[in-house]
């Protein structure tokens, strides 16, 4: 496999009070750098210093130091990191090389606490670690959002189909109303002609006719006012019905919201703070355990030079030309303790180290559980905040609707009073007009079939009222038809959008599997490259294999 040609680069690292390092400066050239040396020579501490400069959070301070720092010079830029002790935790600050070290923490910083290394050691599943940088929650949230949008579009398309089925009936109603309007207009025209004839016949009784005409004109005005008031009443009642229905919907939506308490939010905040402190405390314990395990493993295999010398001086049975191993290891089963100098079984120390390592794993698992709990509480807090914001919006809407209902109810009472007053006044005017008409026409026609001028005016008013009502019905029906036709124009776009969403959902639902497949392929390709660079001829390949399960 061909490798890419790299540009020569140089780096310099300066570290102080990191791990077991007092202070050191290291220069690196391009290519692979091997840290060679005996155990307990601060190679791990140097790696921690590099990790801290790059952005890692797992560097530890010297046991006797309260603060430390690291500085990395690379390609003319300087990256700094400060560490300080805060209780049982180490707080990091500064300007590291990486803005987001997550990928490096997972796949480059391979100390013992590294998740990928732990998964390989304990034969756990690597899938979750490989996919951890992928925001699957965001993908799931997008799937939820698109599904909701698709459902809304489907509901709207169902509504449009229902409206479309109503069109023939609405068009028939419009035709019927138009026919009724034409009939009413023709009838009104006939009545108006009869009124003109009756007024011409009344010219001989001019004085009485003028007074009657004035009374009839006043009667027409009042009837027109009554028609307007009745129309306003009808409109107001419809508006009130719609507002009351909206109020019921808001109240139902409000009642469906889960109950929340200010104490719930406060207790969640307090629990998050407590868990964060607990997590930080566990991080401190894990860091200490890591240092202890690492130190004891190195001492079991060899020794720190100063401790070797001390043990050698205290070993009466060791010859001057004895080896380091002779000083520490009397035989394959015993070892000289580097803390008290006595001989103990190697298996006892190994068992103790294994218990410490198990405790470290338990603490790491405990920390992971705490972090999961913290994230769950944060999600619960976000849900409470969203619920409270929604409850407040509903409360404001309900207040506005209630105020509007009260205003319209007051207006409805005023209109009802106006209607009663106008009906009373019209009754009085009709009586007065009837009396005047009787005085103007003392002798009735023998057949009694002709309508009086008052009756003709009453009929004209009734026809005008009916005509106005029909015209409003025609306007409402026409608007409804036009709204349906306008809405149906969006049907094709909605159907196209629904198909787009279906495609997007299919893509999203297969994206995680595709990302997993690509990640595995990328991992295997990079491992081939690494093996080629390192020229490990005795290793055929290192790879991850995707294994599927057959579910019955």
From TrEMBL:
InterPro entries: P-loop_NTPase, Rad50/SbcC_AAA
Signal peptide per UniProt: none
SUPFAM superfamilies: P-loop containing nucleoside triphosphate hydrolases
Positions of the Rad50/SbcC-type AAA domain: 16-228
GO biological process: double-strand break repair
Biased composition, class Acidic residues, residue ranges: 196-216, 248-269, 415-452
Biased composition (Basic and acidic residues): 358-367, 373-389, 405-414
GO MF term set: ATP hydrolysis activity
Positions of the UniProt region annotated as Disordered: 195-223, 242-269, 358-389, 405-452
Pfam family, one: AAA_23
Name this protein carries in UniProt: AAA domain-containing protein
Protein source organism: Halopiger aswanensis
Organism placement in taxonomy: Archaea, Methanobacteriati, Methanobacteriota, Stenosarchaea group, Halobacteria
């Amino acid at each position: 496999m061909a490798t890419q040609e790299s540009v020569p680069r140089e780096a310099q690292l300066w570290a102080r009070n990191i791990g077991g390092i007092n202070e050191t400066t290291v220069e690196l050239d391009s290519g692979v750098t091997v840290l060679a040396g005996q155990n307990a020579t601060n190679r791990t501490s140097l790696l921690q210093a590099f990790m801290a400069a790059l952005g890692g959070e797992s560097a530890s301070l010297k046991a006797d130091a309260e603060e430390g720092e690291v500085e990395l010079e690379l390609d003319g830029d300087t990256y700094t990191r400060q560490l300080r002790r805060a209780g049982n935790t180490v707080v990091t600050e500064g300007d590291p090389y990486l803005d987001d070290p997550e990928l490096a923490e997972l796949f480059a910083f391979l100390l013992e606490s590294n998740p990928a290394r732990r998964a390989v050691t304990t034969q756990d599943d690597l899938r979750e670690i490989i996919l951890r940088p992928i925001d699957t929650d965001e993908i799931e949230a997008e799937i939820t959002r698109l599904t909701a949008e698709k459902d809304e579009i489907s509901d709207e398309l169902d509504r449009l189909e229902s409206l479309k089925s109503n069109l023939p009936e609405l068009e028939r109603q419009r035709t019927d109303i138009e026919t009724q309007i034409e009939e009413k207009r023709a009838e009104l025209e006939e009545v108006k002609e009869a009124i003109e004839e009756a007024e011409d016949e009344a010219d001989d009784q001019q004085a009485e006719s003028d007074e009657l005409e004035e009374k009839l004109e006043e009667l027409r005005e009042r009837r027109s006012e009554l028609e307007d008031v009745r129309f306003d009443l009808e409109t107001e009642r419809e508006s009130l019905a719609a507002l009351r229905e909206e109020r019921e919907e808001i109240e139902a939506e409000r009642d469906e919201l889960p109950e929340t308490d200010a104490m719930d939010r406060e207790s969640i905040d307090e629990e998050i703070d407590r868990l964060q402190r607990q997590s930080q405390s566990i991080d401190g314990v894990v860091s200490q355990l890591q240092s202890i395990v690492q130190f004891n493993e190195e001492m079991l295999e060899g020794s720190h030079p100063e401790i070797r010398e001390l043990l050698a001086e205290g070993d009466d049975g060791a010859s001057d030309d004895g080896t380091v191993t002779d000083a520490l290891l009397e035989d394959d089963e015993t070892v000289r303790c580097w803390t008290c100098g006595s001989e103990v079984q190697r298996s006892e120390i190994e068992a103790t180290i294994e218990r410490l390592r198990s405790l470290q794993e338990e603490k790491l698992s405990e920390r992971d559980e705490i972090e999961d709990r913290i994230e769950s509480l944060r999600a619960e807090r976000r849900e409470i905040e969203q619920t409270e914001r929604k409850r407040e919006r509903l409360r404001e809407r309900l207040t506005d609707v209630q105020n509007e209902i009260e205003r319209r109810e007051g207006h409805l009472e005023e209109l009802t009073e106006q209607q009663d007053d106008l009906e009373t006044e019209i009754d009085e005017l009709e009586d007065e007009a009837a009396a005047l008409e009787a005085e103007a026409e003392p002798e009735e026609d023998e057949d009694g079939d002709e309508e009086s001028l008052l009756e003709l005016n009453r009929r004209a008013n009734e026809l005008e009222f009916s005509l106005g009502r029909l015209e409003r019905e025609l306007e409402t029906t026409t608007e409804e038809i036009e709204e349906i036709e306008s809405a149906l124009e969006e049907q094709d776009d909605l159907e196209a959008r629904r198909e787009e969403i279906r495609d997007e959902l299919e893509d999203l639902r297969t994206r995680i599997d595709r990302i997993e497949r690509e990640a595995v392929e990328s991992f295997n390709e990079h491992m081939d490259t690494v093996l080629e660079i390192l020229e490990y001829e005795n290793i055929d390949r290192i790879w991850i294999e995707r294994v599927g399960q057959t579910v019955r």
